[in-house]
Structures are given as structure tokens and as C-alpha cells.
Q: What sequence folds into this?
């Protein structure tokens, strides 16, 4: 059963400012207060939103599906991540929403200068981009999305705070890619366990706060090499772009 929500805003620009989760309007983030109850809202369920525009007394509909649900806010020292629902819009709704946003000349110029890698428009070093497109160049076939996201994987040791069921674990990474990262730990968390990762991009003095889930256990006779592999569950395109920039700088 589809979740249906009605929202009234002054203008489409007002709507985008409040709810659009990224510059290409691929996803929306709706705070928990927008819903009467979040108990029955489930990831993967169809979603429909009626948007009423006050400035011209019009209304339209956006459709998609629920990407993920955060039922409780996350409170960290100096940070507050609100509860809410992420909506992945279908292609028709993405196009419709984008059409009401007037892009600045500077944004258009930037897009023309970007390379397409792993499904995202990002500036990358040519040698890194080559790793993504190597198979396509040699076989003439499109590289599957899963393979694009898996490369490049780089060895890196950085501090990672891993939140699992409200418990924090201070760990160290083994490697990272656009698809996920692995960390050293003797505690083998349950497969599919949802987690929250926090690690620092020391190059620009910013932190990543990324959701994910456990996808594999890393076993070794050497206790120090045991660990888990975690898949990133990005909340928006901008988050993926920032992580790719980090990987490029560290590679």
C-alpha cells in the first residue's frame, strides 16, 4: 500500500529548499513531523506526494518509493541527525522537479566539466577514471553498476567510529571503496546489521557520517586481521560525490 502525503508550500523553489536532498533532485528528505505516524512506514514501499503551491494555486504529484526510514534522531556530541524518511523519486518526478528549478550559469558550466564515473558526476583523476572504464574500453560493453561502485578499492588506515544498536565501537579501517569499507574488529556483527559510520577527511577537516549495513565477515588465523565488511547506504548523491573525492585524494 502506498504512503500518501500532502504538503503545502509557497512555491516550488520553497519546496526544493526545504525537502530536496541533493542538487539533481533524485531524493527527498521529509522530517518525522511531516507524518502523523511513522510506525507503518517501511523501506521499499511506494510513495506519493501531493504538492500544493500557494503562489499560483496549483498542485502536482510526485511519486517514488521509500528509500529508508530513521525512526529516531541520532544525537552525537555537537551533532543532531533528525528522524525522518528518505524518498527516492521515480524518473518522471525527478524530471518534473528539476524543470522547476532554474540552474545558475555557474552550475551548468561545472556540469559540462565533469566526468561520469560510477553513476555520479564527479571530478576525478584520469588514472582513477580509467579503472572504472577499463572493461568498457576493452570489451565495448557497459560496466555493471555493481562493478563501477566496487572500484577503486584502496588500502587505508583511519579511525572509524561505528555505531551499532546505540553502542559505539572505536575501530580502524582496512580499505575503502565507493561501495563500502572494511574495519578491523574481533566482534563479528550480524550480517545485514544496520550501522552508522563516522570518520574524518583530514585533508579538508570534515567528517563523513554515513549509514550502512554489514555484508561480510573477514576471518583470519591472525586475530588482528579479523574484521567486517560494510556496504555504504548513501542518503543522497552529494554524499557519494564527497566520498569519491576523498577516495581520489587518498589513492
A:
Amino acid at each position: 500500500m502506498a504512503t500518501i502525503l500532502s504538503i503545502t508550500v509557497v512555491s516550488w523553489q520553497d519546496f526544493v529548499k526545504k525537502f530536496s536532498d541533493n542538487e539533481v533532485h533524485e531524493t527527498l528528505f521529509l522530517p518525522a513531523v511531516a507524518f502523523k505516524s511513522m510506525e507503518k512506514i517501511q523501506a521499499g514501499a511506494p510513495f506519493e506526494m501531493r504538492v500544493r503551491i500557494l503562489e499560483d494555486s496549483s498542485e502536482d504529484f510526485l511519486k517514488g518509493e521509500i528509500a529508508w526510514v530513521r525512526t529516531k534522531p541520532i544525537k552525537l556530541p555537537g551533532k543532531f541527525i533528525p528522524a525522518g524518511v528518505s524518498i527516492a523519486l521515480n524518473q518522471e518526478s525527478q524530471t518534473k522537479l528539476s524543470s522547476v528549478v532554474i540552474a545558475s550559469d555557474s552550475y551548468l558550466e561545472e556540469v559540462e566539466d565533469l566526468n561520469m564515473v560510477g553513476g555520479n558526476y564527479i571530478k576525478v583523476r584520469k588514472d582513477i577514471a580509467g579503472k572504472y572504464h577499463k572493461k568498457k574500453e576493452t570489451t565495448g560493453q557497459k560496466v555493471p553498476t555493481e562493478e563501477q561502485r566496487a572500484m577503486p578499492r584502496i588500502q587505508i588506515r583511519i579511525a572509524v567510529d561505528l555505531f551499532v544498536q546505540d553502542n559505539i565501537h572505536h575501530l580502524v579501517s582496512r580499505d575503502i571503496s565507493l561501495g563500502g569499507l572494511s574495519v578491523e574488529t574481533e566482534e563479528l556483527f550480524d550480517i545485514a546489521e544496520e550501522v552508522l559510520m563516522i570518520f574524518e577527511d583530514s585533508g579538508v577537516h570534515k567528517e563523513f557520517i554515513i549509514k550502512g549495513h554489514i555484508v561480510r565477515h573477514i576471518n583470519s588465523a591472525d586475530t588482528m586481521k579479523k574484521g567486517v565488511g560494510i556496504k555504504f547506504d548513501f542518503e543522497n548523491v552529494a554524499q557519494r560525490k564527497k566520498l569519491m573525492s576523498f577516495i581520489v585524494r587518498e589513492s
Q: What stands out?
A: Residues 102-151 have pLDDT under 50 and may be disordered. The chain is about 25% helix and 40% strand. The chain has three domains: 3-99, 105-150, 154-250.
